[in-house]
Amino acid sequence: MASNSSPYTKGRGAGSNVVSRFVEHKREVVDDGWEPTERTPLRTEIFTDNSRTIISHNNSPDVPFTASINPYKGCEHGCSYCFARPTHTYLDLSAGLDFESKIYCKPGAAQLLQTELFRPRYSPQVIALGANTDAYQPVEREMKITRAILEVLKSHHHPVAIITKSALVERDIDLLTPMAEARLVRVFVSVTTLDRDLGRRLEPRAAAPQRRLETVRRLHQAGIPVGVLMAPIIPVLNDNEIEQLLGECAAAGAESAGYVILRLPHEIKDLFVQWLQEHYPLKAEHVMNRIRDLRGGQAYRSEFGERMRGSGQYADLIAKRFALACKKHSLNRRTRELDCSQFRVPPRSGDQMGLF
Fold this sequence. Notes:
Elements: E1 45-48, E2 56-57, E3 67-69, E4 72-73, H1 97-101, E5 102-105, H2 109-117, E6 127-129, H3 140-143, H4 145-155, E7 160-164, H5 173-181, E8 185-190, H6 196-202, H7 209-221, E9 226-233, H8 242-252, E10 256-261, H9 268-279, H10 284-294, H11 313-328
Protein backbone atom coordinates (compact mmCIF):
# COMPACT_ATOMS: atom_id res chain seq x y z
CA MET A 1 0.00 0.00 0.00
CA ALA A 2 1.40 3.39 -0.96
CA SER A 3 2.11 5.82 1.88
CA ASN A 4 0.76 9.38 2.07
CA SER A 5 4.08 10.68 0.76
CA SER A 6 4.11 8.17 -2.08
CA PRO A 7 3.50 9.38 -5.64
CA TYR A 8 1.27 6.33 -6.16
CA THR A 9 -2.51 6.46 -6.10
CA LYS A 10 -4.49 3.46 -4.93
CA GLY A 11 -5.59 1.38 -7.90
CA ARG A 12 -3.08 2.89 -10.32
CA GLY A 13 0.07 1.29 -11.66
CA ALA A 14 2.18 4.34 -12.54
CA GLY A 15 3.61 6.78 -10.06
CA SER A 16 4.14 9.70 -12.42
CA ASN A 17 2.66 11.44 -15.41
CA VAL A 18 5.68 12.73 -17.31
CA VAL A 19 4.50 14.24 -20.58
CA SER A 20 5.13 12.76 -24.00
CA ARG A 21 8.70 12.74 -25.26
CA PHE A 22 7.35 14.47 -28.36
CA VAL A 23 6.17 17.55 -26.43
CA GLU A 24 8.66 20.41 -26.51
CA HIS A 25 7.71 22.14 -23.24
CA LYS A 26 7.47 19.96 -20.15
CA ARG A 27 5.78 20.74 -16.83
CA GLU A 28 6.22 19.04 -13.50
CA VAL A 29 4.20 19.40 -10.30
CA VAL A 30 6.41 20.14 -7.29
CA ASP A 31 5.39 20.34 -3.64
CA ASP A 32 7.36 23.24 -2.13
CA GLY A 33 6.29 22.35 1.39
CA TRP A 34 4.62 25.67 2.17
CA GLU A 35 1.04 24.53 2.06
CA PRO A 36 -0.40 21.05 2.52
CA THR A 37 -1.73 19.53 -0.65
CA GLU A 38 -4.57 17.05 -0.83
CA ARG A 39 -4.42 14.37 -3.45
CA THR A 40 -7.56 14.38 -5.54
CA PRO A 41 -8.85 11.04 -6.83
CA LEU A 42 -7.71 10.25 -10.34
CA ARG A 43 -10.80 9.49 -12.36
CA THR A 44 -10.87 7.65 -15.66
CA GLU A 45 -11.88 9.79 -18.62
CA ILE A 46 -13.35 8.33 -21.79
CA PHE A 47 -12.69 9.86 -25.21
CA THR A 48 -13.78 8.92 -28.71
CA ASP A 49 -11.30 7.65 -31.28
CA ASN A 50 -12.58 8.36 -34.78
CA SER A 51 -10.22 6.02 -36.63
CA ARG A 52 -11.12 5.36 -40.25
CA THR A 53 -9.81 1.79 -40.26
CA ILE A 54 -9.92 -0.90 -37.59
CA ILE A 55 -7.62 -3.75 -38.66
CA SER A 56 -3.92 -3.12 -37.97
CA HIS A 57 -1.15 -5.07 -39.68
CA ASN A 58 2.40 -5.92 -38.64
CA ASN A 59 5.31 -7.83 -40.14
CA SER A 60 7.04 -8.81 -36.89
CA PRO A 61 8.50 -12.34 -36.84
CA ASP A 62 8.13 -12.30 -33.03
CA VAL A 63 4.34 -12.55 -32.96
CA PRO A 64 2.15 -15.31 -34.42
CA PHE A 65 -0.28 -12.98 -36.15
CA THR A 66 -0.15 -10.21 -38.75
CA ALA A 67 -3.61 -8.69 -38.28
CA SER A 68 -5.08 -7.30 -35.06
CA ILE A 69 -7.89 -5.17 -33.69
CA ASN A 70 -7.63 -2.98 -30.60
CA PRO A 71 -11.01 -1.52 -29.57
CA TYR A 72 -9.33 0.80 -27.06
CA LYS A 73 -6.23 2.99 -26.77
CA GLY A 74 -4.89 3.08 -23.23
CA CYS A 75 -5.81 0.51 -20.60
CA GLU A 76 -7.41 0.98 -17.22
CA HIS A 77 -5.85 -2.20 -15.83
CA GLY A 78 -2.80 -0.05 -15.08
CA CYS A 79 -0.17 -2.78 -15.36
CA SER A 80 3.12 -1.16 -14.39
CA TYR A 81 5.08 -3.06 -17.05
CA CYS A 82 2.69 -2.64 -20.01
CA PHE A 83 4.65 -2.49 -23.27
CA ALA A 84 1.81 -0.48 -24.87
CA ARG A 85 2.24 2.54 -22.60
CA PRO A 86 4.46 4.49 -25.04
CA THR A 87 1.65 4.49 -27.63
CA HIS A 88 -0.07 7.24 -25.63
CA THR A 89 2.87 9.55 -26.27
CA TYR A 90 1.81 9.74 -29.93
CA LEU A 91 -1.33 11.47 -28.62
CA ASP A 92 0.87 13.98 -26.74
CA LEU A 93 -0.15 12.25 -23.51
CA SER A 94 1.88 10.54 -20.82
CA ALA A 95 2.81 6.86 -20.85
CA GLY A 96 2.24 7.02 -17.09
CA LEU A 97 -1.06 7.90 -15.48
CA ASP A 98 -2.58 9.27 -18.70
CA PHE A 99 -2.28 5.83 -20.30
CA GLU A 100 -4.42 4.22 -17.62
CA SER A 101 -6.85 7.08 -16.99
CA LYS A 102 -7.47 8.62 -20.44
CA ILE A 103 -9.04 5.85 -22.48
CA TYR A 104 -9.86 6.26 -26.16
CA CYS A 105 -12.74 4.10 -27.38
CA LYS A 106 -13.63 3.17 -30.94
CA PRO A 107 -17.45 3.05 -30.88
CA GLY A 108 -17.61 2.62 -34.65
CA ALA A 109 -15.27 -0.38 -34.64
CA ALA A 110 -17.89 -2.99 -35.57
CA GLN A 111 -19.14 -0.95 -38.54
CA LEU A 112 -15.58 -0.27 -39.71
CA LEU A 113 -14.84 -3.98 -39.49
CA GLN A 114 -17.99 -4.81 -41.42
CA THR A 115 -16.91 -2.41 -44.17
CA GLU A 116 -13.41 -3.91 -44.38
CA LEU A 117 -14.70 -7.48 -44.50
CA PHE A 118 -17.08 -6.61 -47.34
CA ARG A 119 -14.26 -5.39 -49.56
CA PRO A 120 -13.93 -7.66 -52.64
CA ARG A 121 -10.18 -8.12 -52.19
CA TYR A 122 -10.30 -8.89 -48.49
CA SER A 123 -8.37 -12.07 -47.69
CA PRO A 124 -9.24 -13.69 -44.33
CA GLN A 125 -6.54 -14.38 -41.78
CA VAL A 126 -6.70 -14.89 -38.02
CA ILE A 127 -7.30 -11.56 -36.28
CA ALA A 128 -5.80 -11.03 -32.83
CA LEU A 129 -8.24 -9.14 -30.62
CA GLY A 130 -6.70 -7.11 -27.80
CA ALA A 131 -3.04 -7.73 -28.64
CA ASN A 132 -1.96 -4.21 -27.66
CA THR A 133 -4.43 -3.10 -24.98
CA ASP A 134 -6.98 -5.36 -23.31
CA ALA A 135 -10.23 -5.66 -25.26
CA TYR A 136 -12.02 -6.58 -22.00
CA GLN A 137 -10.78 -3.78 -19.76
CA PRO A 138 -13.37 -2.27 -17.37
CA VAL A 139 -14.82 0.26 -19.84
CA GLU A 140 -15.95 -2.64 -22.06
CA ARG A 141 -18.71 -3.45 -19.56
CA GLU A 142 -20.49 -0.30 -20.63
CA MET A 143 -19.25 0.25 -24.19
CA LYS A 144 -19.58 -3.37 -25.43
CA ILE A 145 -17.37 -2.60 -28.44
CA THR A 146 -15.56 -5.93 -28.21
CA ARG A 147 -18.82 -7.85 -28.16
CA ALA A 148 -20.03 -5.98 -31.25
CA ILE A 149 -16.79 -6.88 -33.04
CA LEU A 150 -17.24 -10.55 -32.13
CA GLU A 151 -20.80 -10.47 -33.47
CA VAL A 152 -19.49 -9.24 -36.83
CA LEU A 153 -16.73 -11.86 -36.92
CA LYS A 154 -19.20 -14.59 -36.04
CA SER A 155 -21.60 -13.54 -38.79
CA HIS A 156 -18.75 -13.75 -41.31
CA HIS A 157 -17.39 -17.06 -39.94
CA HIS A 158 -14.08 -15.23 -39.42
CA PRO A 159 -11.39 -16.69 -37.09
CA VAL A 160 -10.17 -14.67 -34.10
CA ALA A 161 -7.66 -15.12 -31.28
CA ILE A 162 -8.47 -13.21 -28.08
CA ILE A 163 -5.83 -12.11 -25.55
CA THR A 164 -7.04 -10.88 -22.15
CA LYS A 165 -6.45 -10.87 -18.40
CA SER A 166 -10.08 -10.04 -17.63
CA ALA A 167 -12.86 -12.29 -16.41
CA LEU A 168 -15.26 -10.19 -18.50
CA VAL A 169 -14.53 -12.47 -21.46
CA GLU A 170 -16.92 -14.94 -19.80
CA ARG A 171 -19.79 -12.60 -20.71
CA ASP A 172 -19.34 -13.54 -24.37
CA ILE A 173 -19.27 -17.32 -23.94
CA ASP A 174 -22.60 -17.45 -25.78
CA LEU A 175 -20.81 -16.16 -28.89
CA LEU A 176 -17.51 -17.94 -28.35
CA THR A 177 -18.84 -21.47 -27.85
CA PRO A 178 -20.45 -21.85 -31.32
CA MET A 179 -17.40 -20.17 -32.86
CA ALA A 180 -15.17 -22.69 -31.06
CA GLU A 181 -17.24 -25.58 -32.39
CA ALA A 182 -16.50 -24.27 -35.89
CA ARG A 183 -12.78 -23.80 -35.12
CA LEU A 184 -13.07 -20.02 -35.33
CA VAL A 185 -11.81 -18.87 -31.93
CA ARG A 186 -9.09 -19.39 -29.37
CA VAL A 187 -8.67 -17.46 -26.10
CA PHE A 188 -5.39 -16.73 -24.32
CA VAL A 189 -5.57 -15.64 -20.70
CA SER A 190 -2.61 -13.71 -19.36
CA VAL A 191 -1.61 -15.08 -15.94
CA THR A 192 1.43 -13.23 -14.65
CA THR A 193 1.57 -14.48 -11.07
CA LEU A 194 -0.31 -16.56 -8.51
CA ASP A 195 0.77 -14.22 -5.69
CA ARG A 196 -2.23 -12.00 -4.89
CA ASP A 197 -0.11 -9.30 -3.26
CA LEU A 198 2.30 -9.10 -6.19
CA GLY A 199 -0.61 -9.14 -8.62
CA ARG A 200 -2.38 -6.30 -6.80
CA ARG A 201 0.73 -4.14 -7.00
CA LEU A 202 1.73 -5.15 -10.50
CA GLU A 203 -1.70 -5.11 -12.19
CA PRO A 204 -3.89 -3.02 -9.87
CA ARG A 205 -7.16 -3.08 -11.82
CA ALA A 206 -6.92 -6.46 -13.49
CA ALA A 207 -8.63 -9.63 -12.26
CA ALA A 208 -6.99 -11.38 -9.30
CA PRO A 209 -4.80 -14.39 -10.19
CA GLN A 210 -7.24 -16.98 -8.85
CA ARG A 211 -10.09 -15.31 -10.72
CA ARG A 212 -8.14 -15.71 -13.96
CA LEU A 213 -7.69 -19.40 -13.26
CA GLU A 214 -11.44 -19.62 -12.83
CA THR A 215 -11.86 -17.90 -16.20
CA VAL A 216 -9.59 -20.52 -17.79
CA ARG A 217 -11.73 -23.22 -16.18
CA ARG A 218 -15.04 -21.75 -17.35
CA LEU A 219 -13.85 -21.23 -20.90
CA HIS A 220 -12.56 -24.82 -21.01
CA GLN A 221 -15.85 -26.14 -19.66
CA ALA A 222 -17.67 -24.20 -22.38
CA GLY A 223 -15.63 -26.02 -25.03
CA ILE A 224 -13.52 -23.00 -25.95
CA PRO A 225 -9.81 -23.71 -26.61
CA VAL A 226 -7.87 -21.74 -24.02
CA GLY A 227 -4.18 -21.09 -23.54
CA VAL A 228 -2.25 -19.04 -21.01
CA LEU A 229 0.48 -16.46 -21.38
CA MET A 230 2.94 -15.84 -18.58
CA ALA A 231 3.62 -12.32 -19.71
CA PRO A 232 5.84 -10.92 -18.59
CA ILE A 233 8.31 -13.07 -16.73
CA ILE A 234 10.12 -10.65 -14.41
CA PRO A 235 13.43 -11.85 -12.98
CA VAL A 236 13.46 -12.16 -9.17
CA LEU A 237 9.76 -11.23 -8.86
CA ASN A 238 7.84 -14.02 -10.59
CA ASP A 239 10.33 -16.30 -12.40
CA ASN A 240 10.25 -18.63 -9.39
CA GLU A 241 6.57 -19.34 -10.14
CA ILE A 242 6.95 -20.84 -13.61
CA GLU A 243 6.42 -24.48 -12.66
CA GLN A 244 3.59 -23.94 -10.17
CA LEU A 245 1.78 -21.43 -12.38
CA LEU A 246 1.81 -23.71 -15.41
CA GLY A 247 0.68 -26.63 -13.29
CA GLU A 248 -2.34 -24.77 -11.96
CA CYS A 249 -3.24 -23.38 -15.36
CA ALA A 250 -3.11 -26.87 -16.88
CA ALA A 251 -5.27 -28.21 -14.06
CA ALA A 252 -7.82 -25.48 -14.84
CA GLY A 253 -8.04 -26.59 -18.46
CA ALA A 254 -5.37 -24.68 -20.37
CA GLU A 255 -4.03 -26.64 -23.32
CA SER A 256 -1.20 -24.33 -24.39
CA ALA A 257 1.20 -21.86 -22.80
CA GLY A 258 3.68 -19.21 -23.82
CA TYR A 259 5.75 -16.51 -22.17
CA VAL A 260 7.38 -13.13 -22.77
CA ILE A 261 10.35 -11.69 -20.90
CA LEU A 262 9.78 -8.22 -19.43
CA ARG A 263 10.24 -5.48 -22.04
CA LEU A 264 11.24 -1.93 -21.03
CA PRO A 265 11.21 0.26 -24.16
CA HIS A 266 11.11 4.06 -24.06
CA GLU A 267 9.25 5.51 -21.03
CA ILE A 268 8.50 2.11 -19.48
CA LYS A 269 12.02 1.75 -18.11
CA ASP A 270 11.78 4.80 -15.82
CA LEU A 271 8.19 4.00 -14.85
CA PHE A 272 9.09 0.43 -13.92
CA VAL A 273 12.23 1.40 -11.99
CA GLN A 274 10.15 3.90 -10.02
CA TRP A 275 7.57 1.17 -9.35
CA LEU A 276 10.29 -1.21 -8.13
CA GLN A 277 11.76 1.37 -5.79
CA GLU A 278 8.32 2.05 -4.33
CA HIS A 279 7.08 -1.52 -3.87
CA TYR A 280 10.23 -3.68 -3.72
CA PRO A 281 13.14 -1.37 -2.79
CA LEU A 282 15.31 -4.21 -1.45
CA LYS A 283 14.94 -6.16 -4.70
CA ALA A 284 15.05 -3.28 -7.17
CA GLU A 285 18.77 -3.39 -7.97
CA HIS A 286 18.76 -7.18 -8.17
CA VAL A 287 15.81 -7.14 -10.60
CA MET A 288 17.43 -4.59 -12.89
CA ASN A 289 20.77 -6.42 -12.86
CA ARG A 290 19.02 -9.61 -13.94
CA ILE A 291 17.15 -7.74 -16.67
CA ARG A 292 20.45 -6.41 -18.00
CA ASP A 293 21.78 -9.99 -17.95
CA LEU A 294 18.92 -10.87 -20.29
CA ARG A 295 19.48 -7.86 -22.56
CA GLY A 296 23.21 -7.89 -23.25
CA GLY A 297 23.98 -5.44 -20.46
CA GLN A 298 21.17 -3.01 -21.34
CA ALA A 299 17.73 -2.44 -19.89
CA TYR A 300 16.17 -3.26 -23.25
CA ARG A 301 17.08 -4.37 -26.76
CA SER A 302 14.53 -4.19 -29.54
CA GLU A 303 15.99 -6.61 -32.09
CA PHE A 304 13.60 -9.17 -33.55
CA GLY A 305 14.18 -12.59 -32.04
CA GLU A 306 15.49 -11.13 -28.77
CA ARG A 307 13.00 -8.58 -27.52
CA MET A 308 10.45 -11.21 -26.43
CA ARG A 309 12.79 -13.86 -24.96
CA GLY A 310 16.09 -12.15 -24.13
CA SER A 311 19.47 -13.80 -24.62
CA GLY A 312 22.29 -15.32 -22.63
CA GLN A 313 22.52 -18.05 -20.00
CA TYR A 314 19.69 -16.74 -17.85
CA ALA A 315 17.34 -16.51 -20.85
CA ASP A 316 18.31 -20.08 -21.84
CA LEU A 317 17.57 -21.29 -18.30
CA ILE A 318 14.10 -19.73 -18.32
CA ALA A 319 13.39 -21.26 -21.74
CA LYS A 320 14.41 -24.74 -20.54
CA ARG A 321 12.41 -24.50 -17.32
CA PHE A 322 9.34 -23.34 -19.22
CA ALA A 323 9.63 -26.10 -21.80
CA LEU A 324 10.08 -28.79 -19.13
CA ALA A 325 7.10 -27.53 -17.15
CA CYS A 326 4.96 -27.52 -20.30
CA LYS A 327 6.00 -31.08 -21.07
CA LYS A 328 5.26 -32.22 -17.50
CA HIS A 329 1.76 -30.77 -17.61
CA SER A 330 0.99 -31.79 -21.22
CA LEU A 331 0.82 -28.21 -22.48
CA ASN A 332 1.46 -27.41 -26.15
CA ARG A 333 1.06 -31.06 -27.14
CA ARG A 334 -1.38 -30.16 -29.87
CA THR A 335 -2.24 -27.02 -31.76
CA ARG A 336 -5.78 -26.33 -32.87
CA GLU A 337 -5.44 -24.37 -36.07
CA LEU A 338 -8.20 -21.88 -36.69
CA ASP A 339 -10.06 -22.26 -39.98
CA CYS A 340 -10.00 -19.37 -42.47
CA SER A 341 -11.73 -21.34 -45.22
CA GLN A 342 -15.21 -20.79 -43.77
CA PHE A 343 -15.12 -17.01 -44.26
CA ARG A 344 -18.16 -15.68 -46.03
CA VAL A 345 -19.84 -12.37 -46.73
CA PRO A 346 -23.42 -12.55 -45.46
CA PRO A 347 -26.10 -10.79 -47.53
CA ARG A 348 -26.90 -7.23 -46.56
CA SER A 349 -30.29 -5.58 -46.57
CA GLY A 350 -31.03 -4.49 -50.13
CA ASP A 351 -28.61 -6.89 -51.79
CA GLN A 352 -29.93 -8.54 -54.95
CA MET A 353 -30.60 -12.25 -54.53
CA GLY A 354 -28.83 -14.75 -56.75
CA LEU A 355 -30.79 -16.63 -59.42
CA PHE A 356 -29.37 -20.03 -58.45
